[in-house]
Amino acid sequence: MKLYFAPGTCALACWIALEWSGADYDVEKVDLRSESYRKINPLGTVPAIDIGGPRPMTQAGAILSYIAELNSQSNLGAEPGLEARFEFNETMNFLTGDFHPAFWPYFVPQRFTTKSDAESLAAVRTASHARVERVLEHVDGLICNTGHVYRGKRSVADAYTFVMAQWSEKFPKSWRAYGNLAPFMEKMSSDPAVKRVLERSKA
Ligand SMILES: N[C@@H](CCC(=O)N[C@@H](CS)C(=O)NCC(=O)O)C(=O)O
Fold first, then answer.
1. 21 and 14 in contact (C-beta within 8 Å)?
2. Which residue has its alpha carbon closest to ligand 1 atom 9?
3. 82-191 architecture in CATH?
4. Superfamily of chain region 2-75+197-202
5. Any ligand 1 atom below 6 A from CB of 46
6. Which residues of the chain have a pLDDT value below 50?
7. Which atom of ligand 1 lies nearest, measured to the CA of 11?
8. How far lies 105's CA from each of 12, 76, 101, in Å?
9. Residue ranges in the chain assigned as alpha helix (H)
10. pTM above 0.90?
11. pLDDT of res. 203
12. Is residue 6 classed exposed, middle or buried when 0-12, 13-18 and 19+ CB atoms within 10 A define those classes?
């Protein structure tokens, strides 16, 4: 199994999940704009993962669920029962469908305006702040006083939340301003697997 990643991206959540799961895996750093990576993922985004099938698989939420299910002994996925699985899917869909996209106008403002001057791009970035605050507040509520994002236990949702909440570091209201999220982030930062991934991904 090989995970394709780029530093600082959501692909690191899959890497953390792989570390937690005890799976046997490799990683490869890619250049998102390269022709060779387009052959791996025509969308030009990370993560992608080669699981030995006819083509590499993509989409962070699907990859994280796959890692959790493949290594079920690591207990990183949904709790048993229909409602628990519903809640897991709800959480993962919030993270992939609301949390992650809230940052897009900040990272790639040019995709959200037909203008190209610095002032217009800065305005798009500023507009992202309110949306990011909204999703940070929501995830703060999910964590509540449990220390985890899903049902008070460590899961792939923790890994994904950690990586994305870090992106708010330079925002006017960063993860540090949220009562439940801040201690969650501190605890995740000192997790040995998380530290290993952050260090190795920069190498
Ligand atoms: N829907 C995809 C989105 C992945 C995505 O946007 N990844 C970012 C990095 S966090 C990326 O590769 N961006 C490059 C680009 O948009 O060109 C997923 O959930 O995996």
1. no
2. 9
3. Up-down Bundle (1.20)
4. Glutaredoxin (3.40.30.10)
5. yes
6. none
7. 10
8. 21, 31, 8
9. 11-21, 35-40, 60-70, 82-94, 100-102, 104-107, 118-143, 156-166, 181-189, 192-202
10. yes
11. 83
12. middle
